[in-house]
Amino acid sequence: MRGDVQGVIGWQNLRDHEAPDHYNDWINDIFYGGVGAGWYWNEHLKTQVDVGAGTRGDTYRYQNIVVGGVSTFEPSRLRVQQTSFAVEQQYQFFRNQWFHPHVGGGIDVGHRSILEEYQPVTVFDNTSRTTRVVTPARTEKHEEFVARPFVATGFKAYMTRRAFFSSDARVMFKSGLDEVLFRFGFGVDF
Q1: Which of 64, 119, 166, 171 has the fewest CB atoms within 10 Å distance of its CB?
Q2: Domain total for the chain?
Q3: Digits of tens for pLDDT over the chain (190 positions)?
Q4: Domain range enclosing 159
Q5: What pTM does this model have?
Q6: How far is C-alpha 139 from the chain's CA centre?
Q7: CATH code of the domain in which 169 resides
């Protein structure tokens, strides 16, 4: 066999590096799907190319601000969706076995669509005993491309001579830990 193809599903976890509150700066509710193809250079070295996308992940943010000497906060809802393209070089252990663990590393290029919906910022005026809006609701949208190195580990377990089940975990880095992706799939050798 010289190559393989596979379809995967998984769980994607993205880090929100700009979160004002670092209590929880991860977006964890993302379902991932993708396809990939690999080419074996020899019994142990394989180049893997993958494309995939995650569902939209949501998280809530709030930032403490001071308006006219009064402390208040600015709440917002952050929505992130990412598509990606990855190239990985793997080293596969064992030879002619039903179970092959592997380790690898590569580069992942992602396109992120980011939408942040800000709620109105209000303060309570003690003099007039009323609440007033100091900043109206607004929405900010932007897109970004991110290229990150990653390391991976996983396995390939054969069900027949050509059909296999695979699983792996990837950890991507950008100014520290940026993404963790767990994938499970089925494929076939050709």
Answers
A1: 64
A2: 1
A3: 699 999 999 999 999 877 766 567 899 989 999 999 999 999 999 999 999 999 999 998 888 888 877 788 889 999 999 999 999 999 999 988 899 999 999 999 999 999 999 999 988 877 888 888 889 999 999 999 999 999 999 999 999 999 999 999 999 999 899 999 999 999 999 9
A4: 3-189
A5: 0.88
A6: 23
A7: 2.40.160.20
